[in-house]
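Quick review question:
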């Protein structure tokens, strides 16, 4: 089978990870501009001040994408470039930059797939409570509307948020992303709810403008599987799926929260402050959400936590890594001897993806899906001056085969975006962990170079994956 003609082969990036130019042309401060400069917060104190300088080199980068025959480029907009203080005046230089990026894509027939929020919140909003404060909901709605009006004539694919589970758990539970809070479960659940409402409002505004494109959200897809068939561990699997997946997917696709989690939050006094009006909006907007974007890297292998853990010293024992307890102390993730892992301990399992897709279909029906991220973080081997990233090719190949199989089974997958189009700044792993098809030489003026995977992906696109 060749992939259908309307299936998009793409690759992705995010503003903070590629752009640099952190204080140029009227851009406001973002929470990451500030957080990354707190000593010890990131790997070797790296930050995105320069990143890979995409802000100044977007033409060169998009030209390379065109050479790769990329059909679509997923990138994010830096909110603080558009509205420097979050909800005040619009910065026209910011609009100009993204107009240029979009036009450059279109010049080569590359479909722009735009993420509105990939974690870099204007610092003024962060200082006012960030996503735990409802002010951010209306600020986001305003920012989204500015973007639709400025770019919507040419951008027909919108993602509101990238990976709510990651920026909320890392921000309010693990203390590893801004605002750097540890185990503040009350704020964590509040922040997730506020994001879902902000998403619903952004969808509502988009539909009211009648721009006739599509809008959805991107979630991490981290399906949980029990390590064995014991009752305890099967319970852990169910619980993990409710907290890590259904809590995020249900309010978007069903317009309501899963009863199992809602009940527990009530008992624990963790219910978010939510209004009837907000809950009604979630319900009303569920049918207007056009697609779900999935960022799949790995599944979770889980077991019930038998010991009682001290949740107050939680951050000492867990940063969400494999082998650590869940933040509610119910289960733990497990690294298994018979599984294969990356250098960073992420399991490689294309089958885990396929089984997870079947689970999604069972729960949510025929919803349209895009793989908005998937890829291998590695330290790429350089031999005779060539970047021979064979493990990346193998990784993407295995996952694309599964995507093909899923389509054959009737799963409604409409595109695949490799993470990432170019080597970029990893939030917590600096430039050491590479994902790109395009190499960036940090010792040589950020010079770009095509990796082996660049040529391989080009061939896959040209042949529409026929040989997979
Ligand atoms: C996703 C994010 O969580 O994973 C990306 O959307 C990120 O922004 C990617 O870079 C890989 O994560 P890491 O930690 O390996 O850089």
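Suggested answer, residue by residue:
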């Amino acid at each position: 089978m060749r992939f259908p003609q309307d299936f998009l082969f793409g690759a992705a990036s995010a503003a903070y990870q590629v752009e640099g130019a952190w204080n140029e042309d009227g851009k406001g401060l973002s929470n990451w501009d500030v957080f990354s400069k707190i000593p010890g917060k990131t790997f070797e104190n790296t930050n995105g001040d320069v990143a890979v300088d995409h802000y100044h080199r977007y033409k060169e980068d998009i030209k390379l994408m065109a050479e790769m025959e990329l059909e679509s480029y997923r990138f994010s907009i830096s909110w603080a470039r558009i509205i420097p203080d979050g909800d005040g005046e619009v910065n026209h230089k910011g609009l100009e930059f993204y107009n240029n990026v979009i036009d450059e894509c279109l010049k080569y027939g590359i479909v722009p797939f735009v993420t509105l929020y990939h974690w870099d919140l204007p610092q003024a909003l962060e200082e006012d409570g960030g996503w735990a404060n409802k002010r951010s909901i209306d600020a986001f709605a305003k920012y989204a509307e500015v973007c639709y009006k400025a770019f919507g004539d040419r951008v027909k694919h919108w993602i509101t948020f990238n990976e709510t589970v990651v920026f909320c758990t890392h921000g309010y539970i693990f203390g590893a992303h801004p605002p750097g809070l540890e185990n503040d479960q009350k704020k964590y659940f509040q922040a997730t709810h506020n994001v879902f409402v902000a998403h619903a409002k952004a969808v509502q505004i988009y539909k009211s403008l009648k721009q006739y494109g599509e809008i959805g959200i991107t979630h991490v897809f981290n399906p949980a599987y029990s390590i064995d068939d014991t009752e305890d561990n099967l319970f852990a699997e169910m619980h993990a799926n409710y907290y890590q997946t259904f809590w995020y997917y249900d309010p978007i696709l069903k317009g309501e929260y899963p009863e199992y989690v809602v009940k527990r939050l009530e008992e624990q006094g963790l219910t978010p402050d939510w209004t009837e009006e907000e809950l009604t909006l979630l319900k009303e907007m569920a049918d207007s959400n056009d697609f779900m974007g999935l960022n799949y890297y790995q599944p979770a292998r889980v077991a019930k936590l038998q010991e009682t853990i001290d949740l107050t010293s939680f951050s000492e024992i867990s940063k969400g890594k494999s082998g650590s307890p869940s933040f509610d102390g119910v289960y733990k993730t497990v690294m298994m001897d018979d599984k294969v892992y990356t250098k960073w301990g992420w399991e490689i399992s294309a089958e885990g993806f396929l089984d997870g897709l079947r689970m999604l279909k069972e729960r949510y029906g025929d919803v349209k899906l895009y793989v908005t991220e998937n890829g291998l973080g590695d330290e790429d081997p350089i031999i005779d001056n060539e970047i021979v990233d064979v493990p990346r090719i193998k990784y993407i190949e295995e996952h694309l085969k599964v995507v093909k199989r899923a389509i054959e089974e009737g799963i409604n997958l409409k595109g695949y975006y490799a993470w990432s189009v170019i080597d970029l700044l990893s939030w917590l792993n600096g430039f050491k962990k590479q994902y790109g098809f395009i190499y960036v030489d940090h010792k040589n003026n950020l010079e770009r170079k095509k990796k082996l995977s660049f040529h391989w992906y080009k061939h896959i696109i040209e042949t529409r994956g026929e040989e997979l």
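Why it works: The pocket of 6-O-phosphono-beta-D-glucopyranose is lined by residues 14, 17, 162-163, 166, 295, 373, 377, 419, 426-429, 433 (CB under 6 Å). The longest strand covers residues 111-117.
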